[in-house]
Every structure is written in C-alpha cells, then in structure tokens.
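Changelog-linked ticket: FE2/S2 (inorganic) cluster example.
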Amino acid sequence: MAEMTLTVNGATRTVDVAPDTPLVYVLRNQFMLGGVRLGCGMSQCGACAVLVDGREVRSCVTLASRVAGSKIHTIEGLPALWAEAREGTAAGGLHPVQQAWIDEQVPQCGYCQSGMMIAAVDLLARVPSPSVAQIREAFTDAPPSPHLCRCGTYPAIIDAVQRAARAMAL
Amino acid sequence: MISTPTLTRRQFVKAGGALVVSASLPSLSSRGSVEAAGSTLDATKLASWIEIHDDGRLLVRTGKIETGTGMSAFYAQVVAEELRVRPEVISLVLGHTDETPDGGFSAGFLTGANNLRKVAAYTYQALLDLAAGALNAPKDALAVTDGVVSGGGRRISYAGLVRGQRLELTIPIGGSLPALDPGQPTGLSGLTGLQVSGTPPTREIPQYSVIGESFPVPTVAERVRGDTEWVGDVRLPGMLHARMVRPSAVGATLVRAGSVDRARFPNAEVVTKGNLVAVVSPDEWEAVAAARAVAASTTWSDWSGLPGHDEVTATLRAQPWGAPSHERGDAAKVSAALSAAAKTVEASYEQPFTRHAPMGAYVAVADVRRDGSATVHTASAQSQGLRVQIAHALGVDVEKVVVRWHQGPAQYGRTTWGGDGAEGDAAILSQLVGSPVRVQWTIQEDLAWSTVSPAWVADVKGALDTEGRLSAVHSDWYAPHENDARLLGALLAGAPSVTPLATNRVSTVWAYEKIPVLERAFAMPSLGADATSAGLRGNIMRTPWQRQQNFATEALINEAAAAAGADPIQYRIDHTTNPRLIELLRATAKEAGWDPRPSPRPGARRTGGGLLAGRGVAVMIRSDAPWVAIAEVTVAPDTGEVRVTRFTVGLDCGKVMNPRQLRLTVQGGIVQGLGEALTEEVTFDRQKVTSTDWTRYRIPTMGSTPDIRMVITSYDDRGINSAGEAPNALPPPAVAAAIFDATGVPPRRIPLTAAYVKKLLSA
Ligand code: FES
Ligand code: FES
C-alpha cells in the first residue's frame, strides 16, 4: 500500500491504496464520488473522464499516484470551479455546462454524460465559442476522445455545448 | 379476476397525516392476503400505488422503471393529468419488488402508463367523493385545479381533504406476477405483471393539459449534478468486490482454477462453483488485479463449438428448420398470386449478430443471508422476473428474495425477460462466501458474455402484376431464438435455470393492406449451444424481431419499386390505404425535399472515383404509429465508404406525451440504428467472441452522426401510441435503399461497412 495526497474538488486528503491503483477507483471508492463512471477501463469511451489541472484525463488509465499534487475535478466539483473562475459570483449555482445539459435535457440513460460534461468544460476553456465542426472534432477525434454514447445523445450535446458557450460569454 | 371496479370507502381513522393506507380489507389478489416483510405490495389496494400526503405531495409506486428514455417524467405526467395536479408534486418509487405492487417489464411507456392512469383515475373519483362531503356540494359540480377542489362556493385542497384521514380503497386487478413456466418461450410466465382492470372515468385526450407539455425528466438534473445513485454505487456493510474469471471459450469447462499470490494480494480469494470462477476482495482494485493474475493461471478444457462469424450465414442455411414457429397472413392467396404473377422479385437478406452494448458493463450487488433470504440490487427492467430466477438459482422461496432497482446504463431490452446480467454471479457468490458481494463485469466481458441479438437470414418474394404493382409478398425469416434470459452465473455454476424454448415471432405490422402477405418466422436453438455451452445466448433487443423483419420486407418493397420503375414513396402510397401512413409519407418527403423519381437515380454507377449521392426511404408501423425515414448518403464506389449526410424521420404517434423528450429519444434511436446500419457486428472465432472492445464492436460517434430532422405532429384524435422504442429500426432499410439509389446495386446485408459495400459493388 502507498499513501498519496490528492486534491479533489478543492479538498485535499491522504489515502492509502495500492500504488498501481487507477484514479477512477480512488475517486469512486475513497472519495465516494459517484459522478465518476467506470466504462470501458481502456481509454476508449470517456465515461470516466475527470479534469486534472483543467484538462480532460481518463481516470481509468491514469494512476492516482501520478496526479498527486494536481487539481482534480469531477462533475461534483464543477459548480465550485465555475464560482472560483467568476470569483465567487456564481456560488450555489451550477456550472454553465451543467445548466446547459439540464436546459437541453441531454442525458437519456446518462451513463456517459459525466465524461461528456468534463469534455465540454475542457473544450470551452480552450475554444470559448466552438463551431459544430470543432465540437465534433473534440468529442470524436481529438485525443483523448472519442466520447461514446450508446443512447445517441450527440446532437443534444452539440446544442448544449453551444448553449453553455453563450452563457459563459456573458 | 373480477371485472368491475370496487370502490369502497370503509372507514376513516386518524393516521397522522398521510392518507390512503389500507390493511383490513380481504385481498382480491390470487396470491392471498398475507404480506410478509419483503413481499410485493398488494395491488388490489389503491394505497399500494398512490399515497397522498398532507403536505400536498404524492408518492406513486410502480414496478416499472426509468429505462433512460424519460419514463419517470411520463409516469408523473399521466398521474398528474388524471388527478389534476402538477407533476412536480409527484415522487416515484420504481422497480423495488418490496415497495411496488405490479411488476411487469419496462419495454415501453404504455404498459406502465395504462396501470397508472387507472389508479390515478380511481383515486380521483375517491377524492371527489371526499370533497363532495367536505364541501357539501354535489360531486358533478366540483372542479379541480392543481390539487384544489372547488364547489358550492368553497375550496379545499387534496392535502386538506386527506389530513388526518385513512382511506381504504380496493381496485380490480388482472394478470399475474412472474413464475416459472416451462411452457413459455422464456421459461417464465407473468412477465407483463399485473394489470389494473375496470374502466374508471379518465380524461379525454383533447382535455389534456399536463400530457403534451415538455415536462423535464426528474432524473436528468440529478445525473448532471452527480447525485444519482447508480446500481454500481451501492455499497453494503462488509461487502466484497468480485471480478469474474470467465472460461477461455464459450463452452469450456474448468480444469483447474488458478490461485492467489498471497504476497501480492493479501486480502483476495478465489471462489469457484462449477465453471463459475471469481476473485473477491474488500478492495475493488485488489479484486481487479488479482483476478487478472488468477485468470492467467486458470486452465480450461478445449471447446470450439462456434462456426466463426464468416460462416454464420452458411450455418443458418444448413439448419433443418422444420415448421415455422409463428406465421401470419393468407397462405392460399399469396401462393395463388405468386403463381399468377407477371414477374416476381426475389431476394435473400441477412444480418450478423449484434448486441445491446451499453456504455457501462453489468454490475450487481447481492446479499444472501444465512436464513436464505436475499436482497439483490440491480438495474434490470424486470425486477419481478429476476426475483423468480434468483430464487430458483439459490433454491429458496421467491418470497425470501427482494430485488431493489437502481439507475443503470440503458439496457435496450436485454433485461426485459428478467435475466442476463451480473445478478446470478453476485447471488451465488454471496451465498458461497456469506457476505454481500458486488460483481462488476468488465466491458470486454460484457461484449463477450452478455446476450446477443441473433444473426438471421430472410427469403422474401414479391409477385408483380402486369402494371408492376405488388399482388403478394411472402417472407420467411430464419434465426436463433431470442428467449434466453438465463442468468450467466447460474448457467456457469450449474445452478437451476429456466429453460427457454426455440421459438420466434412475426413481429411486423404489415403497412400495405392492398398487398396480401404471408410472413413466417422460423427458430433454432442458440448458436453453439451444446452439452456444456449455452452458446451465443439470443435475446431481444430494442424493437425486437420487427426491426430485422421490417428490414427484409422494406428492402424488397424498394427492389419491387425499382423493378416497376416507380418512385419508392409513390409506390408505397399506391399499396396502402392507411391514411396516417400516407399523410406521413407526404409530410416527411416534403421535409426532406424529396424529388419524385424512380430509384436507382439517373447516372447511378458502381465503379469509378468520386462520391455518389443517393437517397432512400423506409417505413414501419409499431403499435399503431406509422414511421417514415428518408436517408441521404454519399458512397465512394472505389473504397465502398458510405456516409449518411442527412436523415429525416417522420412519426405519427397520436398524442405526443412530452414533445422535447420524444424528439431527444427519437434522435437517439436514429443514431443507434445508424450503428446497426453501418458498423455493428459481433465477431467470433470457433471458441469465443472477438469483438470485445469499442474499436472492434463499433458504435456511432458524434463525428459519424448526420443532421437529423424530425417531422412529428401531435394529434388529439388518434390515441396515444408507443413512440420511443422504434426509431432504431428505421436507418438500416433507409440507408440500404439510399446506397441502391446511388449505385444501382441493392445491398442485401447489414452492416454496410466499407469492406462489404466495396465487395458488393465489385461483384
Ligand atoms: S472508462 Fe475510461 S475511457 Fe472508458
Ligand atoms: S446517455 Fe445513455 S450512454 Fe449516453
């Protein structure tokens, strides 16, 4: 076993796990964050995506020990992340990506959607007003994509990303 | 069962605030009146279905579940409509066998909605009776808005009516809960559960106000915040994590289980029963890592009972099929028309194995206690059927088993018969180790060991008269059956299982009343089933039987239209009298900018460079709802690559429950169907499935998703037809027709991969 100190959604904690434990298991079982979903476990689907220092990372193939010292965010931490970015003005509300996901009613079963929202936050941080082609590229071809959804919510995701982009530009 | 409603207000007693609990009436259910702890609620008691609380909130219970298409919104809307309340005041209890009354599968919204509509209507009448007394006004002079009854110049809320009251009402119930039944295709009867009978007054569709609004799906916001408790999130005290070590081949048997290296994995243990092998540990990652190590040192017998995926069609063709297991139509008329035909069109169509392929693999938690009682946590769409199968596998009375439902990745029909899944593994392991056990399958395991939608071949023949009109269609459809919902864990452990029968069904709704038709479905056991192997277990998948059979008959209609030199939309209009279908064909054609002309298009070619454009149409009727799909594609003849550039879908499902949610579900279903049209195929060698990750079982991506347009109109005079399930059936025949249009070559197999299309064009 190995002790490692992780900062997740703004809280820092030391956990004692096997040194080769992937981040997804630590977030789910030690930090009890159910917003992190286990999908393929092979970096092929995106269900497990989280933010590490603001960029999307596949937690199923990332050793927890590798991200000690980084800032890790799951969807549970997106509201605070947004509040911080806006210097607290949006505290209590949801991240605009989350709000857009609700407004567009994106999830069907929802299993893939944590990863989809993480990918959207990553994309919008780099490309504040993405075109449809840029969104398609980000969710299909740009590493670590693809992000897969068996319920076929892709058109709704495109609408929601654009809605979130408008909200974040205000 | 009794056929008329019995509404009996027996007594009102102080009950501390919440109305409608019932205990003293004799049960009208065939299962007797005693409710042991853990038993299913008595469906004859209205209070088992709806509780009205004195804060104005309503609790509604049903054994149906949220399948991921918005059921939790629709159920709230249906109840709210009949009770004249806002759907926001309704909370739902779904799927738990010990907290709901009815059971039944969740394969569409109508099966659940019919029960809830009636229980809400019965409750409404009871509340009006109460209000008439309280307001001292005649019942028929009362009006209700948002849960407030007014009459005689006074008002009282439902909350006010029920405060401190206890009301007992019984309602008539038909049907039965699941039970072992060797005569049934799945080995289980009662899978549709209990039905509320009688005819309480219900609202007419034109009066609807809550039904028809885009009420948000209650589960959406919780998913977005990360608050959902998924089945994989269930944690019980003392729970062990398990990972399975599966046989090296579908029918291989255990020779020797590997052992755990104690130095590396101090808390892990190997558990076996028959061919069921697992590694358990209190730590999930230890279970994962130790299972990998144990798998490497476990030995299995040789088995090679599969034909290999390239041999599937030949294998099906070589089967001794015998008599059809189901048929429909007019054999005499069809054979007369075929012998009198001026010309016949004839073709064989086929599809390899496909699968449901949810984004999350099966996961379940089971707690089997020393006294034989068991609780199983599942995301199954058939809690009561699962309960029976678990009890059977464990050898305990069904009353000792409680199944609790949680959200899960959408299953697309694979749990509708109450099995498949990790629940069998979890229950058997828990019984063996004496602790709660959580079994998480891997995606590789799920893509190899879960049930499949069987491969099929179909022979279709049409008789054309001298004017090119179809005077008969005969279609024969051959496939392994789709009834195997046995629990994998029970099968591997050698525990008792139900016995599925090799039967198939004709499931199309024939859209062309002017054409006499004979449709026959033939069945065989699962491919690779033998003494040690269940083979590739066939199971239903979204729009079962119909989507495969409809592909074959729609493809033939397109070939017949081409033979007749007719526009394929006009050709369909000429062969049907269904006014809703005709109207929808015209509306969808208009939306797609359809230019009437025969297919293939002028200039269609099968060779050369560049991109060819094509467009194709297909229709389907499911329940009473007509569907029309128009696909537009480009084909690169030199590579065979197909791109769907635009997809237009028309639907007339009568009254639309929830317009936004319907559009989202239809859109998603089209995307799913495009996967079946273009890429999806389960591959296997002689031992095992080989399409075991997302690069080998290829589902649609955002990049491959076309612009999807929808033509959906809500009507008040056409009933409420089912709508959300069917769209996945539309893309395969429409895309195939579009390739035919572009190239002049009719594809007769899906998926339309580049390799297949290239081969087709160069043949
Ligand atoms: S679970 Fe990590 S990418 Fe699929
Ligand atoms: S919403 Fe079901 S997998 Fe994406």
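Closing comment: Example verified and attached. The first strand of chain B starts at residue 50 and ends at 52. Chain B is about 25% helix and 20% strand.
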